[in-house]
Amino acid sequence: MSTVAAWVVAAPSDARGSHTGIVERVWEDGFRLNTGNQTFSVDSWDVYGDNTAQFIRVGDRVTITGEFEGGEFDALTIQVNH
Questions:
Q1: CATH for 16-81?
Q2: Which of 20, 21, 31, 57 has a CB 3.0–4.6 Å from the CB of 63, allowing a cystine?
Q3: Other beta carbons less than 10 A from residue 30's beta carbon
Q4: How big is the CA angle at 22 (ends 20 and 28), to the nearest 5 degrees?
Q5: Per-residue pLDDT tens over the stretch 39-61
Q6: Domain ranges of the chain
Q7: Confidence (pTM)
Q8: CB-CB neighbours of 73 under 10 Å
Q9: HEC secondary structure over the chain
C-alpha cells in the first residue's frame, strides 16, 4: 500500500484578469498589493524591469492586468491611480 500526498497551492480568486488595490511594499521588480479581499505579490518586471521603485510607491492605488503564475501575479499592465 502506498500513500501519495499532494500539496495544492491555490491562487487568489480571479487568477486571470484585473485587480485594483493599495501597494504595501515595493522592491526592484515587484510589489505587494492588497485588494481588500486578498494580498499577493506582483511581478512587475515585464512593465518596469528592475526599476519598479521609480514608478510605484507604498500607498499608491494601482490597477493591474495579467495572470497568476507560480504563486505570484505577472503584471502585463500597471496603472497608478492618483
A1: 2.40.50.140
A2: 20
A3: 21
A4: 105
A5: 999 999 999 999 999 999 999 99
A6: 16-81
A7: 0.80
A8: 26
A9: CCCCCCCCCCCCCCCEEEEEEEEEEEECCEEEEECCCCEEEEECHHHHCCCHHHCCCCCCEEEEEEEEECCEEEEEEEEEEC
Q: Name residue, grid cell 497551492.
A: 9
Spatial distance between the Cα atoms of 19 and 65, rounded to a whole number of angstroms: 7
Distance CA 65, CA 67 (A): 7
Residue whose grid cell is 497608478: 80
Residue 8 has what pLDDT? 37
**What Cα–Cα distance (Å) separates residue 59 from each residue in 6, 36, 55, 81?**
37, 13, 12, 11
For residue 4, what are the CA distances in angstroms to 8, 27, 47?
Answer: 13, 38, 40
Cβ–Cβ under 8 Å, residues 60 and 22? yes
Q: What cell was used for 41? A: 505579490
